[in-house]
C-alpha cells in the first residue's frame, strides 16, 4: 500500500520486567510496522523513545531519511532495565520528540503526529494528566499493553475511541501480530493535493518538508 506521510513515534518500555529476549520481540514489531511505511523526508518520519526510570531518545524524527538506515538503528537499541516512568516518557515526547527542533516539520504543517506506546507494567508516575496534554497537543495516542499491564493506565493514555487505540497481548510473543493493524491504519491513497484523513488525523500537504 501507499502510506500517508506522518510523524510516528514509538515509545518503548524497557524496564527491568522486560527480559532482553522480550525486548527483541518488541523491536521485531517496530521493524515490521516500519517496513510497510513510505519512509522519507517528505513522507513518513519515524522516531523511537526508549524508557525505564530514565528516557533515552534512540532515534529522532529527523535522523534517518531512508528505511534501511532506520531499521538498522532500531536493531541496535538496547533495554535500559530499570523502573517504569511512563509519564516521564510521554512528557519527553511532547517537549522533545515532537517539538519543532526534534521533528523538523513546522507545527504549522498538517502532518499527523502519532505515538505508539508499548508497556507491560504499572507506571511509577502519573500518566493521566500528561497523556491528556499530549492529546490536546494533537498527538494521536495508541497504547499497547502486555502481560500484567494495568488496563486503566492504557485507557488513560489512549486517544478516543479507546477500542481503536488500545490493544492487549498476553505476552511479548504475540506482539508481532499487532503489526498488521498498524500497517493497515497507516495505509491510504493520496488525494490530488491533500492527503486523505486516516484514523481521524490530517496528513501532510505534499509541499511540506
TrEMBL record:
Pfam families: VWA
PROSITE patterns per record: VWFA
Protein name (Swiss-Prot/TrEMBL): Cartilage matrix protein
Domain VWFA: from-to ranges: 7-186
Subcellular location: Secreted
Classification via InterPro entries: ECM_Assembly_Org, VWF_A, vWFA_dom_sf
Keyword entries, A-Z: Disulfide bond, EGF-like domain, Repeat, Secreted, Signal
PANTHER family linked to this entry: CARTILAGE MATRIX PROTEIN, COLLAGEN ALPHA
GO cellular component labels: extracellular matrix; extracellular region
Main localization (coarse): secreted
SUPFAM superfamilies tied to this protein: vWA-like
Keyword Hydrolase: no
Domain of life: Eukaryota
Keyword Signal listed: yes
Amino acid at each position: 500500500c501507499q502510506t500517508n506521510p506522518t510523524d510516528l513515534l514509538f515509545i518503548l518500555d524497557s524496564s527491568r520486567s522486560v527480559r532482553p529476549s522480550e525486548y527483541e520481540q518488541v523491536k521485531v514489531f517496530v521493524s515490521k510496522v516500519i517496513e510497510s511505511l513510505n519512509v522519507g523526508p517528505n513522507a513518513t518520519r519515524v522516531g523511537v523513545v526508549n524508557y525505564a526510570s530514565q528516557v533515552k531518545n534512540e532515534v529522532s524524527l529527523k535522523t534517518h531519511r531512508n528505511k534501511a538506515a532506520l531499521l538498522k538503528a532500531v536493531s541496535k537499541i538496547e533495554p535500559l532495565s530499570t523502573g517504569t516512568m511512563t509519564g516521564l516518557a510521554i512528557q519527553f515526547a511532547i517537549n522533545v520528540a515532537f517539538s519543532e527542533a526534534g521533528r523538523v516539520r513546522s507545527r504549522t504543517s498538517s502532518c499527523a503526529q502519532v505515538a505508539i506506546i508499548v508497556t507491560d507494567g504499572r507506571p511509577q508516575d502519573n500518566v493521566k494528566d500528561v497523556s491528556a496534554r499530549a492529546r490536546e497537543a494533537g498527538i494521536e495516542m495508541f497504547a499497547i499493553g502486555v502481560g500484567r499491564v494495568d488496563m486503566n493506565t492504557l485507557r488513560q493514555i489512549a486517544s478516543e475511541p479507546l477500542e481503536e487505540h488500545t490493544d492487549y497481548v498476553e505476552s511479548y510473543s504475540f506482539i508481532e501480530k499487532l503489526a498488521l493493524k498498524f500497517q493497515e491504519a497507516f495505509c491510504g491513497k493520496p488525494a490530488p493535493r491533500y492527503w486523505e484523513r486516516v484514523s481521524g488525523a490530517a496528513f501532510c500537504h505534499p509541499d511540506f518538508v
